[in-house]
């Protein structure tokens, strides 16, 4: 079995170039030496197969080129998609994503954020489980934090990419109300409501204005557990709702699964609205009515904000994403009782 190739050291590059190791280090970092010397050293380093040791590079520059990505739960397919797109966007900017999963637990999310900070990530892209947690203010004082979804209460983050939840919630409930539905289930994730989640307050306001009969249900992450809750706590009731508004498409998939188990037809027996227009939603039977939140644009803006802050450049600090309703086959007029 062959031995792994020996790493070429910066001293070997220096000896070959006839320069000091310090001069070679400066040349590779693009500082304190002429452009001609930089080009010569980099060409020679490439020929010799020299690669800077990542730990040494981080110690020398004070940067790890790592950016943490921390959302509520990767079991939510939209959160999973955003994390993957953010990782690719960071890589295109010569950064690397460190993606961790809070599992929907606000305490676990806080602990993971502290670990990322202690591991010296250069920045953090955060979607908080509990925006009212005072820890986010402390974290933002020592780390470049860009939040998306909801803004941490009182935290001086360097960037915010927020959802226009007032428009989204109002649009979903008015859409169902216009189809004649009055008994409407609102399905949300655990840990709601909190002081920092305005979407819950918008539900209450719109429900009162439209004189709806809401049933609010917390649905856990994961298709199996979510399906069980929807089946047993909602659709199995004697006076079940005629429509469901789900605060994520992944929750809507649990509604589809529970309806199938109970032999309920969508939308004949139950209309369903999702909230984040995951690509899977368009290929369901029937396709899911949902809201497009411009996820690619959201990711580009959030990544641009955190990279600009790391590089010491100024960027927009607050962007609000407005949703677009994608009306498909999962909603119809209220069934006659």
Task: Provide structural commentary.
With 337 residues, the protein is an alpha/beta fold. It has twelve helices and twelve strands. It has three domains: 52 residues, 434 Repressor (Amino-terminal Domain) (Orthogonal Bundle); 127 residues, Response regulator (Rossmann fold), CATH 3.40.50.2300; 128 residues, Rossmann fold. Helix content is 42%, strand content 17%.
Mean pLDDT: 88
Helix content range of the residues, please? 40-55%
Q: Output the structural class.
A: alpha/beta
* Spatial strand order of the main sheet: 2-1-3-4-5-11
Output the keywords:
single chain; 337 residues; alpha/beta; 434 Repressor (Amino-terminal Domain); Rossmann fold; six-stranded parallel beta sheet; four-stranded parallel beta sheet; 12 helices; 12 strands; 42% helix; elongated
């Amino acid at each position: 079995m062959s031995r792994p190739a020996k790493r070429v050291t910066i001293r070997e590059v220096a000896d070959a170039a006839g320069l000091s190791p310090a001069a070679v280090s400066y040349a590779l970092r693009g500082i304190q030496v002429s452009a001609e010397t930089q080009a010569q050293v980099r060409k020679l380093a490439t020929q010799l197969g020299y690669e800077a040791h990542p730990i040494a590079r981080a110690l020398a520059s004070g940067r790890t080129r790592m950016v943490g990505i921390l959302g509520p739960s990767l079991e939510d397919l939209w959160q999973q998609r955003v994390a993957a797109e953010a990782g690719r966007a960071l890589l295109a900017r010569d950064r690397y994503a460190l993606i961790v999963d809070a599992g929907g637990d606000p305490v676990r999310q806080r602990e993971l954020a502290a670990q990322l900070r202690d591991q010296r990530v250069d920045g953090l892209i955060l979607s908080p489980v509990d925006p009212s947690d005072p820890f986010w203010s402390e974290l933002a004082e020592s780390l470049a934090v860009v939040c998306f979804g909801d803004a941490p209460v009182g935290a001086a983050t360097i960037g915010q990419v927020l959802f226009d939840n007032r428009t989204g919630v109002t649009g979903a409930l008015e859409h169902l109300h216009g189809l004649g539905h009055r008994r409407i289930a609102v399905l949300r994730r655990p840990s709601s409501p909190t002081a920092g989640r305005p979407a819950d307050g918008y539900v209450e306001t719109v429900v009162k204005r439209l004189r709806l009969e809401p049933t609010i249900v917390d649905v856990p992450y994961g298709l199996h557990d979510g399906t069980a809750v929807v089946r047993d706590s909602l659709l199995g009731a004697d006076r079940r709702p005629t429509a469901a508004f789900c605060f994520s498409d992944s929750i809507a998939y649990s509604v589809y699964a529970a309806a199938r188990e109970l032999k309920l037809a969508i939308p004949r027996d139950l209309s369903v609205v999702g909230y984040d227009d995951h690509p899977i939603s368009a290929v369901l039977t029937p396709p899911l009515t949902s809201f497009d939140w411009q996820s690619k644009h959201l990711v580009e803006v959030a990544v641009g904000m955190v990279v600009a802050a790391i590089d010491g450049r100024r960027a927009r600090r607050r962007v609000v994403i407005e949703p677009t309703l994608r009306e498909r086959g999962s909603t119809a007029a209220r069934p006659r009782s």
